[in-house]
Amino acid sequence: MSKRVVLLGYASGIGAMDPGCGEGPPRLHRSGLDDTLRARGIDAVWGAMYFPEPRRGESLHDTIQRLNKRLTLHVTDVLQGGGRPLVLGGDHSSAAGTWRGVLTALGADKCLGLLWVDAHLDAHTPETTHSGMIHGMPLAMLLGRLGRGGAGQAVVRPEHVAIVGARSFEPEELALLRELGVRIHGMEEVEARGLAVIMREAHARVARETDAYGISVDVDAMDPRDAPGVGTPESGGLRAEALLVALAEIVALREPVAIEIAEFNPLHDREDRTVRIVHELAAVLTGAGSA
User: Which of 77, 100, 120, 135 is buried most deeply by CB count within 10 Å?
Assistant: First the structure.
């Protein structure tokens, strides 16, 4: 990939039950993620680092919405300037800003595909959420289901979305995604058919008949044996090595217009294992490959 990669930090954990993921982007900055990418031949620079700035009397939802509007503007600017945004979370509410910014840059009449790699479905609405946490709602928002009466301005169409690695979710969000027709490749299917096969199918869905596609990886998609630094670990996940290989294959087929890596929580990391994996993820997703 020849385009400059601009790293954008979404240093917010206020949308999650465990806010420690807000420390993820600053930790990645200190760890020299940009240096890692440049050493692999990627023209990478740090852009902005966004922190939540609550106002007196403001709701949590409004604080996150303001934060995402700032992210949307910067993602749009990066793409319109010929660059490629790599958004680093922070909790997964970042997706609201990341992918709306991408669509804004492409044009509202364009079709954006989205590959969502996650242990969770993140498809609750305010009416169905069990926890009230906003990081459990971004996919529903992107599909246009958080507006008044369940409708809103969609960023992606269900037929252009694929989820890989899901294994922990509530029946309400599963029902919503099935109703809409989103393709879900859960861990049982991954284990039965193999991750490489699943990833190729998911890539075909999001890259076929779309103007561009993006990849959003929640670090908790991986098994906590490989990536312990997350706020909501779920056993039985994707093994890191297999995920890196599968992602490298699809990125080589068609490069994503933008990339998002969310929910890295350094407060739960051990011996910087998750830091190193995020570095490898970033390298693979930007086309540099793994070490």
Answer: 135
